[in-house]
């Protein structure tokens, strides 16, 4: 079953967040297990964002979470955000295009 992690955060530095995400992907190469990621800005609150990160399974998400590069990502992400980052974990029960 697919699994998604949702990061919800506020920032005025969205471009730097995108660069950080790109850097994490480059640094982890074939060791990360992310299948897909989407970053979206709230329509009415321009500094509020979500990042939806899809994995093949919960176990794959945990493998990516345990990478040293992920710890570095989280520390840098915290510095780019205004307030805490809310992390939520979801099992995908429906996926249609």
Describe the structure.
With 97 residues, the protein is of the alpha+beta class. The chain has one domain: Alpha-Beta Plaits. It is built from 3 helices and 4 strands, in the order E-H-E-E-H-H-E. A 4-stranded antiparallel beta sheet has the order 2-3-1-4. Helix 1 (14-28) runs antiparallel to helix 3. The longest helix is centred in the N-terminal third of the chain and has 15 residues, at 14-28. The chain is globular, with a radius of gyration of 13 Å.
Quick tags:
single chain, 97 residues, alpha+beta, Alpha-Beta Plaits, 3 helices, 4 strands, globular
Order of helices and strands: EHEEHHE
Proportion of residues in β-strands = 25-35%
CATH class: Alpha Beta
The geometry reads as: globular
Give the structural class.
alpha+beta
Summarize the SSE layout with pairings.
Blueprint: E1 3-10, H1 14-28, E2 34-41, E3 48-55, H2 58-65, H3 68-80, E4 86-91
Antiparallel strand pairs: 1-3, 1-4, 2-3
Helix pairs in contact: 1-3
Short structural description:
By secondary structure, the protein is of the alpha+beta class.
């Amino acid at each position: 079953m697919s699994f998604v992690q949702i990061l919800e955060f506020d920032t005025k530095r969205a471009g730097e967040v995108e660069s950080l995400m790109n850097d994490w992907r480059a640094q982890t190469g074939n060791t990360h297990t992310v299948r897909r990621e989407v970053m979206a800005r709230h329509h009415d609150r321009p500094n509020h964002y979500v990042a939806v990160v899809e994995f093949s399974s919960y176990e794959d998400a945990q493998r990516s979470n345990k990478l040293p590069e992920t710890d570095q990502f989280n520390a840098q992400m915290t510095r780019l955000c205004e307030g805490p980052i809310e992390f939520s974990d979801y099992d995908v029960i429906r996926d249609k295009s």
